[in-house]
């Protein structure tokens, strides 16, 4: 890392492409969160097909839609994070991410046997 | 009290209003706050996945017990997700105003609740084994 000259000295006012790798760390945090969401959505799809196939297909479709919506939110935020200057506060995106998490939770309640 | 509640709710539904307050903090602090939010969302997702897993895999358990545990975990996930947004917003606002970060009892409560839920599942599994 240091050989490439990418690391800027720490301290106030130190410029650089990504101080303290903050943007990369945040991007990776989004990635981890989408992976966790995928696991939870996978479990929801599995429980959707416990009963009748027709109802299961509808429920699984809803789960997949919620999953895609979350991926879109994460993707847009990751895109923002790769641009300069960084948009610090991202209230709208974070709120959407929480809302889709709640949507998956609601589907999980509906899918309880 | 009521005024504070409505002000908070307004910020929930119009997060861009947050930018009208105070000064924009160093973006590194905002990003750290965002990562904390994401960690809470992952906690919420883990609780949701746990609830669904209990429902699907603890099939030897009576329906009532199994569903009660699953619903408790799913409700915990929902609370975590809502609280993640709320805490993110409070931290962001405190940073903009240059105030101390908000302290919270929530992590301690979640820790106690998780430990109790784990003990409950252990007891339920052991009793289920004994009854079988």
UniProtKB/TrEMBL annotation, chain A:
Superkingdom of the source species: Bacteria
Cellular localization per UniProt: Endomembrane system
Pfam families: DUF202
Key words of the record: Membrane, Transmembrane, Transmembrane helix
Disordered: region residues: 1-24
Domain (DUF202): residue spans on this chain: 19-79
Keyword Transmembrane (UniProt): yes
Full protein name: DUF202 domain-containing protein
Main location: membrane
Iron among keywords: no
Membrane topology: Multi-pass membrane protein
From TrEMBL, chain B:
Membrane topology: Multi-pass membrane protein
UniProt-listed InterPro entries: DUF202 (IPR003807), IM_YidH-like (IPR052053)
Location within or outside the cell: Cell membrane
Residue stretches spanning the membrane: 37-57, 63-85, 106-127
Keyword hit for Membrane: yes
Residue ranges of domain DUF202 in the record: 28-94
Key words of the record: Cell membrane, Membrane, Transmembrane, Transmembrane helix
Main localization category: membrane
Pfam families: DUF202
Protein name: DUF202 domain-containing protein
Source species of the chain: Streptomyces gossypii
The organism's taxonomic lineage, starting at the top: Bacteria, Bacillati, Actinomycetota, Actinomycetes, Kitasatosporales
């Amino acid at each position: 890392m240091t050989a490439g000259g990418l690391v800027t000295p720490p301290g106030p006012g130190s410029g650089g492409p990504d101080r303290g790798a903050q943007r990369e760390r945040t991007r990776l945090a989004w990635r981890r969160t989408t992976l966790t969401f995928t696991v939870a959505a996978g479990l929801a799809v599995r429980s959707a097909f416990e009963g009748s196939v027709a109802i299961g297909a509808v429920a699984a479709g809803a789960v997949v839609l919620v999953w895609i919506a979350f991926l879109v939110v994460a993707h847009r935020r990751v895109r923002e994070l790769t641009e300069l200057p960084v948009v610090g506060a991202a209230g709208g995106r974070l709120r959407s991410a929480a809302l889709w998490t709640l949507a998956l939770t609601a589907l999980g309640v509906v899918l309880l046997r | 009290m009521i005024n504070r509640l409505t002000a908070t709710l307004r910020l929930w539904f119009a997060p861009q209003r947050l930018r009208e307050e105070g000064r924009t903090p160093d973006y590194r602090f905002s990003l750290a706050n965002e990562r904390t939010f994401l960690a809470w969302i992952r906690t919420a997702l883990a609780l949701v996945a746990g609830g669904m897993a209990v429902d699907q895999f603890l099939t030897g358990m009576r329906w009532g017990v199994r569903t009660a545990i699953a619903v408790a975990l799913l409700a915990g996930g929902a609370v975590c997700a809502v609280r993640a947004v709320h805490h993110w917003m409070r931290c962001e606002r405190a940073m903009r105003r240059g105030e101390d970060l908000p302290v919270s009892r929530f992590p301690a409560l979640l820790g106690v609740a998780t430990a109790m839920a784990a003990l409950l599942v252990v007891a339920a599994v052991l009793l289920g084994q004994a009854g079988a």
